[in-house]
Protein 1
Amino acid sequence: MRHFFLFTALLFVHQCWGIEERYLHTFEQQDGGGNEAIKINIVREKEQTKIPFIDYSHDWLKDYIDNVSYNVDGFFIDAFFSDDIIEDDVNGSRAKVSFFTRRKIGQPVDYKYGISVKLVLPNTDERFNLLLQSSDEDEGERESNPINTVDNVEYSTALRYVFQETERWKVNFDTGVRWGLNPDPFSRLRFRRYAYLDDFRIKATQNFFWSGNDGFGEETKVELNQPLNIDRLIRYSAGAEYLLNNEYFTLNYGMALYHELNSSEVLAYYYRAGGDTVDKVTFNNYGIGIRYRRKVYQNWMFVEVNPELETQSDSEYDITPIIMFSFEALIGIR
């Protein structure tokens, strides 16, 4: 029996040496063997040329969207769609440059350029912000000539003081001037309150404002965000604005379903309605549409296509197709 175990052990060692020799023989034949140094060719990826300022913007926006996009919520929607960087609650200095076109079927194409800047002033404990904004897309007359659009853009500048900024309360005061043929000074005080329920996140905003042209007024907005799952969210919204000089309310409400298709694309289906209280509470402007928004370059350039069907009392409620296109560049300053 002892001879049997000895024979088995010798056979096992012989087989192991055979495997090792075959492995080393193969290695030597392919990679030189002997005293010849083994050469390993490393394929190096070409480095992309980066512009520091643009790279800062890319990193800032990427980090912010990545941090909030684990679940689609109101902050993610505000950051991705960037409808109003002056009024949203994304922290830090930001700038947006946009080009917007809109066409009603049977009418010429309208063009509009826009710029918005929110600059947090240094050494102020983030209490003071400098604001620069062109006229809103819904304000004033659009131009049918892109060159005239650039020439006729009006701007406003303001200084913002932040009284309070916590998880549930945001209070700030702005004062500035809208620049045009007749400069229009303005001031506004904003209160914003957040509430978190089991199925809803509520954002309520109250603005009190004054301007030389429009006088005193107030605006109330309420948003309810309801996450459906990790990539879908429903937003219900309602608002009212009152001007003392007009002595009636302007009303609006709407609903939108946001669907994050992937990290670069978001699709939104929406319904909106607008009205007033000139005679009685009446809604006379309705719209239904789709917003498709996509990142087209890194994480800071976006394009959006927005087809819509609109009907209003001024056109005897005829359905009017509208197509809108926008290009935006978002810049974050760290």
Protein 2
Amino acid sequence: MQTVRIHVRGVVHVFDPDEADAPPLPSWLPPGPYRPARVEMATGSATRTWDAVAVWPEGQCPPPAAGADPWSDEQAGDVVVAKATEQFRCRACERRVNALYPEPALLHAHLGRHRTASRCPLCAAPVDTARLHALALFAPDA
């Protein structure tokens, strides 16, 4: 596990998928630049914790998380924390798709290094028509 500080109030723990404490990745997520993550954010006197997906830009391999030296700023700098969201509705074909949606409170200046979704994976409608603005879109499991 690697811990990346995201603000004064929060951290993201990034896991290798086979680590014992790793939250599960969605079954519909294909192999790729994705790693399980857990976000801890202090809000007032409480700490809010939720599972997420750490995403690296396409073509960039995530470094090992378990048993590795702490990541450099370069290794962790391109990571975007995303929420796995199921059942987004395409406004063009009215069918449902799954998505990785960037966590707005956790974005850094590096979202531009990621290629965001451009078309519905089911009907190929542009995201503006489909109203499916997300980091990545996936057809649901059959």
